[in-house]
Amino acid sequence: MKIYKLFYKTLICVAVAGGFSSCVNSWLDESPNDSTNASSAISSSADLNTARIGMYAILRGNSTLDDYYAARMIYYGDVRGEDMQAVTGGGGRTTVSYKMTWTTPTDAPYIWQTPYIVIERANNIITAAESGTLSDESTAKTDIAQYEAEAKVARAMAHFDLVRVYGKPYTMDSTSFGVPVVSSVLEPTVQEGRNTVAEVYKQVISDLTSAINSGALQTTKDDGYINVWAAKALLTRVYLTKGDNQAALNVAEDIIAHSPYTLWTNAQYVDAWDKSNSAHTNEALFEFVITSSSYWTDREGIAYLYAESGYNDAVATKSFIDKVKTDDPNDVRLGTILLPKNSTNIKAFTDTVTKVTYPAYINKYRNDGGDVRYSDVMILRLSEVYLSAAEAAYKLGDKTTAAKYLDAIVNRADTAKHATASTITLTQILWERRKELIGEGQRFFDAMRNNETIVRYTRTADQGWNAPLKSYAMSYDRTYYKALLPIPQSEIDANAVIAKQQNTGY
């Protein structure tokens, strides 16, 4: 793979985390002839920790490497669904993903480079940890094992996200092309082909279960770092996406019963999204903690893209707001969607007939009273675990258990409401999931794994404030070829193996 030719100076370059941002461009410009195997430069547990910090820095991203959790992985999962859309006249960063206007691999969005950098950094950590050559291996076994386990979880996360973007859903065709599995440090000349979707999932589950079963991950809250509960939450998501509902339920119930995390209450919910709120970390199984401009993603980060005062790039759709208000106007989650303040936006989001101004701006990446660029970014949250448990239990035919876990979310949203075993449906569970996780990058992937049709609008009367869409973007399902992104053209040009494995339609 072409990108690996750029990898081998990555860990050396992050000798100090604070200098990471200025270092990124320099190592991306390095010639492969000048590269060094970064894992060989790790000679102690302190070096391993430096490498670990560098891995998290790449996972978090920055204003240059924004094609993963800095922004694109999140907004791609949001605006490709029906509950969020790009803003006409906004920053324009989400527009292509929303309108699906690409025609070639060159003009398509990509979520490729940064995830594979995460994988390579994780591989360097794992290789060094298992080498038996670290100078303080006998006295720092606990730390070394923990860093290795965290790297396995990060590697699993990157592979899982890549296969969801570039490969068909497991529940659709697990034998089709996924993405290349990279579980070791590669030489610069290696050209990897695509593994099957099933093979990618096998590696992901192997990494996650190995990390969890190692006993090396922290069991207490570890803000900003992966602990055992974050690993289990990711594993729950993986099992649910794979369609292994019993395994998903087992892991989810373990988290709910034994983790130190608790659901936000109805009274806490809206304010708990603010990073400074005392309840904020109650649900935060894993989030990126932004403490200074050395760690932020600046204006290219998801918080700035979603803020009206930022790039004003993506908002909730009118159809979503109408449906939530019709379902329950007292739903506390409406408090995380803000009314516009700018006069131009007030006009844009005001119904021309009723003259009602709609809330539109997702307010989940919050730093109240401060610069929105310092907002923390939630990646894995306890509410999702409850919803996953409810969905898995329902699909297993256990409506009583499904209702128990769904009720925790329904009753928290509105204390006058309950979910019951006698009335619960899969449609209800999936709708609660949409209401709960809007703005968190999940809707598109949930629709694809459940074989749902995404319907933005099919007639002008229902367009709301959606920009005009081509017919193929108004309504589509996972059989449409643009449900998958094309392998990037740069990879096709550099890798003769993968050049023969492009996704159908490109």
Shape: globular
What is the first-to-last residue Cα distance?
19 Å
What name does the CATH topology of the domain at 76-103 and 261-498 carry? Answer: Serine Threonine Protein Phosphatase 5, Tetratricopeptide repeat
In angstroms, what is the radius of gyration? 22 Å
Taken as a percent bin, the fraction of beta residues is under 5%
What's the average pLDDT? Answer: 92
Q: Quick one: CATH class of the domain at 76-103 and 261-498? A: Mainly Alpha
Helix residue percentage: 40-55%
Could you tell me the number of beta strands?
8
List the main descriptive attributes of the protein structure presented here.
506 residues; mainly alpha; Serine Threonine Protein Phosphatase 5, Tetratricopeptide repeat; two-stranded antiparallel sheet; 20 helices; 5% strand; globular; disordered N terminus
Q: Can you characterise this structure?
A:
By secondary structure, this protein is mostly helical. It has a domain at 76-103 and 261-498: Serine Threonine Protein Phosphatase 5, Tetratricopeptide repeat (Alpha Horseshoe), CATH 1.25.40. The protein has helices at residues 10-13, 20-28, 45-60, 72-79, 95-99, 113-129, 141-166, 197-213, 228-242, 245-258, 269-272, 302-306, 318-327, 343-348, 382-395, 399-413, 426-437, 443-449, 471-474, 489-494, and strands at residues 84-86, 284-288, 314-316, 337-338, 361-362, 377-381, 454-455, 475-476. It has a two-stranded antiparallel ribbon with strand order 1-3. Helix 15 (382-395) runs antiparallel to helix 16 and helix 15 packs antiparallel against helix 17 (426-437). The longest helix has 26 residues, at 141-166. The chain is globular. Mean pLDDT is 92; it is low at 2-36.
